[in-house]
Design brief:
The protein is mostly helical and about 230 residues long. The protein is about 70% helix and about 0% strand. Helix 4 runs parallel beside helix 7, helix 5 packs antiparallel against helix 10 and helix 8 runs antiparallel to helix 10.
């Protein structure tokens, strides 16, 4: 096997093992020895790739975000569908990574709700960058189909949609391993049901998307920091 390919595979094994450990056990009690056993690698080899447990934790988080980024950037809105249908399709794509690897869902839930105190700043920054460079960009792609000449409305709907998706992920947290092991899809089905209700209320109860303008016009969001 080519050395670069072998090295990349070893690094992925370590990250998968680290995500598994961090997803089930608080950072302070997570065991590097257990990560090495699960990743089938020596401790010396682990520290060859990652200088410290802190660096490994942040690399594991970045690894999850990169998998999510790949999945979401591949999403293409379908202009033949309604706005609501495309929003729900995008949310399903957001869920898909977690469905394929439940440890990702467990780990990301912990990282968002209770990151290690000394790593809180870097964790928040990594999630912020992902939000601005991936989530909001893809949301705006959806709304460009429906409001092609109205960037303020595109930006407003993107912002509200992102707040909704964050509300779902933070308020519902992540599935607990002991509750999700029998039928993990129950958690995601509940997420989707709540998200669908919120989207429907927002579009039809609050914004009334069939109305081209609010009575006083749309606010100017051109300088709003997303």
């Amino acid at each position: 096997m080519d050395q670069k390919v072998k090295a990349a595979a070893s690094r992925r094994n370590i990250l998968d093992a680290a995500i598994k450990e961090f997803s089930h056990i608080r950072y302070e009690k997570a065991s590097v020895n257990q990560i090495c056993r699960d990743g089938q690698i020596t401790k010396g080899r682990l520290y060859y790739y990652f200088e410290s447990k802190d660096q490994l934790y942040l690399a594991a988080l970045q690894y999850c975000l990169e998998r999510m980024k790949e999945n979401l950037l591949a999403f293409e809105p379908d202009p033949s569908l309604s706005m609501e249908e495309n929003i729900l399709r995008f949310f399903a794509a957001w869920q898909d990574v977690w469905k394929r690897n439940m440890n990702f869902a467990f780990f990301m839930g912990r990282a968002k709700l209770s990151p290690p105190d000394h790593l809180r700043g870097p964790v928040i920054e990594m999630i912020r960058v992902f939000r601005n460079e991936v989530l909001l960009v893809k949301w705006q792609e959806i709304f460009q189909f429906y409001f092609p000449d109205d960037q303020n409305r595109q930006k407003l709907f993107s912002m509200i949609s992102n707040i909704t998706i964050q509300y779902i992920s933070v308020c519902m947290g992540s599935p607990r391993p002991d509750n999700a092991k029998n039928d993990p899809n129950l958690f995601f089905d509940r997420q989707m049901a709540i998200f669908k209700s919120l989207v429907h209320i927002f579009l039809h109860g609050c914004m009334n998307v069939e109305v081209p303008q609010l009575r006083d016009g749309w606010p100017d969001y051109s300088d709003f920091e997303l």
